[in-house]
TrEMBL record:
GO terms for biological process: cysteinyl-tRNA aminoacylation. InterPro entries: Cys-tRNA-ligase, Cys-tRNA/MSH_ligase, CysS_C, Rossmann-like_a/b/a_fold, tRNA-synt_1_cat_dom, tRNAsynth_Ia_anticodon-bd. Keywords: Aminoacyl-tRNA synthetase, ATP-binding, Cytoplasm, Ligase, Metal-binding, Nucleotide-binding, Protein biosynthesis, Zinc. It catalyses: tRNA(Cys) + L-cysteine + ATP = L-cysteinyl-tRNA(Cys) + AMP + diphosphate. GO terms for molecular function: ATP binding; cysteine-tRNA ligase activity; zinc ion binding. One of its GO terms (cellular component) is cytosol. It comes from Candidatus Kerfeldbacteria bacterium RIFCSPHIGHO2_12_FULL_48_17. This is Cysteine--tRNA ligase. A motif ('KMSKS' region) lies at residues 285-289. HAMAP family: Cys_tRNA_synth. It is found in: Cytoplasm.
Amino acid sequence: MKKQLRLYNSLSRRKETFTPLSAGQVTLYTCGPTVYDYSHLGNFRTFLFEDVLHRVLLWAGYRVKHVMNITDVGHLVSDADAGEDKMEKGARREGKSVWDIAAFYTGEFERDFFDSLNALRPDVLPKATDHIAEQIALVQRLEDKGFTYRISDGVYFDTARVADYGKLAAVDIDQLQEGARVEKNPEKRQPADFALWKFSPAGVGAAQRQMEWDSPWGKGFPGWHLECSAMSMKYLGETLDIHTGGIDHREIHHTNEIAQSEAATGKPFARVWMHGEFITVDGRRMGKSLGNFIRVADVVARGFDPSAYRYMTLLTHYRKPANFTWEGLAAADAALQRVWRFVASAAGRQAELKDTAVLEDAVRDFEAAIFDDLNMPQAVGVAQRVMEIGAGGGKDFLPAAATLLKFDAVLGLRLAEHVTGAAQVDVPAAVQKLVDAREVARATKNWTEADRLRDEISAAGYEVDDAASGPVVRKKS
Ligand code: AMP
Ligand code: ZN
């Protein structure tokens, strides 16, 4: 009998005891990055909360099938269906093709998230552009059932046909849609109606789109909510267990995903919806379009290990707003270094450590925290207490270290690497030279050269993390 995992469901607006549709197996869909620019620490706050969720589900003993999409098409600058296409805008900005832009920023996202921030890889990372046929099929299904209508710029979903439209949204959907719109579309029947398929602009002076596809309704591209419905149903079935995203997705994107999915299938789409709150900088939301964003590379350039950001995100509950400051990151980094130093004291005692029983009370407290709607601040508090118990290196040290290592399945702070010294491997002299040269470049704030050297180190098959104690070199996996 598994312990009870409680999760806050945005749909019911309360914490519920979680039980998956099929025993022992959870289907999880998380809205992924739009790859027209680098993902920033704001995006990663949401993605990290989702990674913690994935890890907590594993801790609870479930098999997890996790899908995270890559949005590489047709995502407009506004939440409504007007305005510029983000991907095409990114391509123009950099004088590259949309396809090159998508490939480049997808690679950067994967490096930052999986390599630097130590996130678990979802089972599938499907791209919207690889699923155009599935999206067209979904629109056809909706058309056959009479949920769509056609106007001059596309095929739209008729929200008046859905009795419970907007059930997820916490505010009046009509007002929100009106407010968010860049330009009113007088042809729409209701303000909340949204595009399923947009026609490529035609006529004299129309900007040429780089991404467009043939469809039964003419050349064009999918509306931006469509991909998540089509891909989650393809990989996870018509009803999935948990669907997540940032809080900004609740009112429009997820509301529309629900409407079109449930209209098409007649079944509930996702049983639990979870939303992460935003992180701000100087009180303003961090956003790609606002140009105030901080990247993982900026964190590294300031001499922090990316894990310090991961640790920092654990210190605020995912449903509470957070504010980013460099002082906050420095404090998180200092706390993380203490944990790393603590477990590193077990170096050379791995065999003993393996045979050491964990502190059962602490494990129970940790589990109570993570099972209470992912209360990570409380879970980190338990980890801190465990360090106090093991302080001084007495008989309680090894049990405390073993307990922290167990917690790391959820924390994801690379603790094992700091015990075995894997974080500090034997590197060939040629690579060590590059690492040393990079330290000099960093000390003189020559970031371009430091980045170039990092690339050279990477080409040699190694990666370097900048811990406060100095560079940590690892063989690439
Ligand atoms: P995007 O790449 O713009 O599609 O966003 C990816 C994810 O990041 C979405 O789930 C957003 O809700 C989330 N997000 C965007 N900005 C922030 C922020 N400042 N804080 C937390 N999450 C964010
Ligand atoms: Zn989505």
